[in-house]
Design brief:
heterodimer; A: 338 residues; 14 helices; 2 strands; 59% helix; globular; B: 446 residues; alpha/beta; Rossmann fold; 2 domains; 6-stranded mixed β-sheet; 4-stranded antiparallel β-sheet; 17 strands
């Protein structure tokens, strides 16, 4: 027998690792990726591959040649960022724009803050918003879903359901007049609607969400508080004037809400540390989403809402502490004054 | 699982690995030499009253308590005192120890060596406390807090419940489990003695639900005394933490920085109850205890009755030797035990187990950046934020660490166990606690 190892307790470790969490997220994203590929075809594969390869490449380049530190592209975080970036853009986005997006996500939003775990804003969403404000035309010309089984056809673009509503109501139309132009809720559920590559199918995203809950990668607090807030707030507005506001089911099923609530807002690096804080965070995301959707300039507001709430996270972490053991309910916690 | 009582906040569930659960307690032969550290209990080390060349009998007092929180030490063997010298103990530091060369095994005449169960308690409350103090009984759960101190509640405080800790939530360890199975009747008398000492009318024995045989056995034995109740607890680490156990048993929360007596409770370990029985009914000082020797590659995982001062090596030999694949030897359990540096480290009153870890599981994980996943916060049974305290301790921000209640950390290790980035959170928490504790003490002095 050779030398004994000496270290402080605990001497055993659970089977969790960063890599395992990242791989879990990737597995959870598979259904939504498959739906994207099914409806948007080869283009979807192209965007996915480009985003992933570019994200890994930029992380490698920055770590190796700029920071001159350890290269950690195998930890899976850049892979997740790449996939999420692809999920958040239209599948017909020019390739070079995807690459610019990856550079913004990895270079600006992640590495310049210090790398994994240090960033304040969700990298994929920073890239998405960067692309949206820089290339508004390309970022809002949505390809119409055409099942890959129908063979390769020319890509036709069309608006998203939220876009139809925003424009229609802006032109003075009522919801009942717009009803015929909108896809059915069944189509929203399966994903047969216009939108970003990974946001169209509610069912596929929910499957991923259930998987992540089961594997304890996320907790229910953020997604549920976002969805409840969106449902209640949009429901109140719809109740006040059903002709002028879309119903809550519509708001829940369309746009990037599901993708945002389940995959983007739950990013552990950029969300609050306590469950109470996560509920406040989710409430804020839901509220801002509907504010932007109903009264903002853009038809869609989830990305902005999440990024704004990302900025509030440090404050939430200060204000919302876990329930301390031995603190009497209602009595504010004070540092021990011995 | 939901039907069993439990603490509420945090916790983890490591693999239980109770390999020695079916190994009956076995006495190991008295060694040729014992080395008895003078600092065996929490608090001040004891003061030796023997010198080189003295003849001692088994059970004879060899070192006296040197303060309020301190304990007497009795010779575990009969023989000659060789020397009082420095020797490495479980902390890895050299500390003063009494070396005794063993000659025969002649016990002090006052000790009743028979096995008959003495269930009549003739001593008064004060006499019990005095006996427990005189015979050097300390908490055997691992913290080694002098038992007599716990039996003397501070002025104005009154105990309502005696809580007996039979949880043994540390993976691998089975010494308390075997004690409950084999010494159940003595433990019940020990509990009655403790109740008499504390003047309480209610006692609760908490046992984790992975020891159903012990739960059934003690429930059966406790039927003779309606004041004693056995409760089954959910298997969740750290169910056996003093504050967690009180929460699980009575739904009472010991306030931050306070002792269990604040909520009317005194917690004692099952093995301590047995030691109290032996001290009070048999006049036997605490000089031997049951130690689990275990590990994945250990050929004969065992529970040994062993004299204090026996070398760890002797126990490992009794369990069929050290496996080639051993990479780490731990005194105690895998969650809170201490890795020892030398195999001849002596067994002390607080040694509940010797765990031989495989080489493959001995090394720490590579430390990766914190991904702010909150798992440490979810796992903390005290409702603290280990990631934040770690950062504060690293940066030397003691005010922040104190305000965020670092002193409430019970060092259970749940945070580090669950951290996906392999960050040694508890190392930093301990560092922070030492620094903040020092700062608080200086402040009091001023």
């Amino acid at each position: 027998m050779n030398k004994l190892t000496i270290s402080g307790s605990p001497h055993i470790h659970g089977d969790e690792s960063t890599k395992k969490i990242m791989v879990g997220v990737v597995i959870a994203l598979v259904p939504a990726m498959l739906v994207g590929v099914y409806y948007f075809g080869v283009d979807a594969i192209r965007v996915l591959l480009l985003a992933v390869i570019a994200s890994l490449f930029f992380e490698w380049v920055i770590q190796k040649y700029f920071i001159k530190g350890t290269v950690t592209i195998m930890d899976g975080s850049a892979l997740v960022t790449g996939i999420l970036l692809a999920m958040n853009v239209p599948s017909n986005l020019p390739g070079w724009m995807v690459v610019v997006g990856a550079l913004v996500a990895i270079g600006m939003a992640k590495m310049s803050f210090g790398g994994l775990g240090k960033n304040i804003f969700n990298p994929a969403l920073v890239a998405r918003v960067f692309l949206l404000v820089s290339f508004p035309v390309q970022m809002t010309s949505w390809p119409k879903p055409a099942p890959i089984t129908d063979g390769l056809a020319d890509v036709i673009t069309g608006p998203t359901p939220l876009g139809i509503v925003k424009e229609g109501l802006g032109n003075g139309q009522t919801m009942s007049q717009l009803a015929s132009e909108l896809p059915s809720y069944t189509r929203d559920m399966v994903g047969n609607i216009g939108g970003s590559l990974g946001e169209v199918s509610v069912i596929a995203i929910l499957l991923g969400g259930i998987y992540m809950l089961w594997k304890k990668i996320i907790t229910w607090h953020i997604p549920v508080s976002i969805l409840v807030t969106v449902g209640v707030f949009s429901g109140l507005m719809w109740g006040s004037n059903p002709e002028h506001y879309a119903d809550p089911v519509f708001h829940l099923l369309t746009g990037g809400l599901m993708l945002g609530a389940i995959f983007m807002a739950t990013d552990m690096v950029t969300s609050p540390m306590t469950k109470s804080g996560q509920i406040i965070f989710g409430f804020g995301v839901g509220l801002l989403t509907i504010l932007i959707r109903l009264w903002g300039a853009y038809p869609e507001g989830v990305s902005f809402a999440i990024l704004i709430m990302n900025a509030v996270v440090p404050l939430i972490n200060k204000g919302f502490k876990p329930k301390r053991f031995g603190a009497k309910p209602g009595v504010p916690i004070k540092a021990k004054s011995l | 699982m939901g039907i069993f009582k439990s603490f509420v906040l945090g916790g983890v569930h490591p693999a239980e690995n109770k390999l020695s659960a079916n190994a009956a307690i076995e006495a190991v032969p008295v060694p040729k030499q014992v080395i008895i550290p003078l600092g065996q209990n929490l608090g001040a080390p004891s003061k030796p009253i023997v010198k080189k060349g003295d003849q001692v009998k088994t059970g004879q007092l060899i070192a006296e308590a040197s303060g309020f929180i301190s304990a007497n030490i009795h010779s575990p063997v009969s023989g000659t005192v060789l020397k009082i010298d420095q020797f490495i103990d479980v902390t890895g530091y050299k500390r003063p120890c009494v070396f005794i060369h063993v000659e025969g095994d002649e016990w002090d005449e006052s000790i009743d060596r028979t096995d008959t169960l003495e269930s009549h308690i003739s001593l008064s409350s004060e006499e019990i406390v005095a006996r427990v103090k005189a015979l050097g009984i300390v908490g055997l759960g691992g913290a080694t807090f002098p038992t007599s101190v716990k039996l003397t509640p501070p002025q104005g405080k009154k105990a309502e419940y005696l809580i007996i800790n039979g949880v043994e939530c540390e993976p691998y360890l089975t010494s308390d489990h075997r004690m409950m199975l084999e010494k159940g009747r003595e433990i019940i008398v020990g509990i009655q003695i403790l109740m008499k000492a504390l003047l309480v009318e209610k006692a609760i024995i908490g046992i984790e639900n992975n020891k159903t045989d012990a739960i059934n056995h003690l429930t059966e034995l406790a039927k003779t005394d309606e004041r004693i109740r056995v409760i089954a607890l959910k298997v969740r680490y750290p169910q056996g933490g003093e504050k967690q156990l009180i929460k699980a048993a009575l739904n009472r929360e010991v306030p931050s920085g306070k002792l269990p007596i604040e909520v009317g409770c005194v917690v004692q370990n099952v093995s301590t109850a047995f030691a109290v029985y032996e001290a009070v009914q048999k006049n036997k000082p605490l000089f031997e205890r049951v130690v689990t020797v275990t590990g994945k590659a250990v050929k004969k995982p065992s529970n040994f009755l062993v004299r204090i001062g026996t070398s760890t090596q002797d126990l490992i030999d009794a369990a069929a030797g050290i496996p080639e694949s051993t990479g780490k030897v731990i005194s105690g359990g895998p969650m809170m035990g201490k890795a020892i540096t030398e195999l001849d480290t002596p067994i002390v009153k607080g040694t509940s187990g010797i765990l031989l870890m495989e080489k493959t599981e001995s090394q720490r994980l590579v430390e990766n950046p914190c991904i702010r996943c909150s798992r440490c916060t979810y796992a903390c049974p005290m409702g603290l934020e280990p990631y934040l305290l770690t950062k504060a301790a690293k940066l030397g921000k003691l005010q922040v660490a104190e305000k965020e209640m670092i002193m409430d950390c019970i060092e259970c290790g749940s945070c580090q166990y669950t951290c996906p980035s392999g960050i040694p959170l508890l190392d930093y928490l301990r560092l922070g606690k030492i620094k903040v504790g020092r700062a608080i003490r200086t402040r009091i002095k001023k």
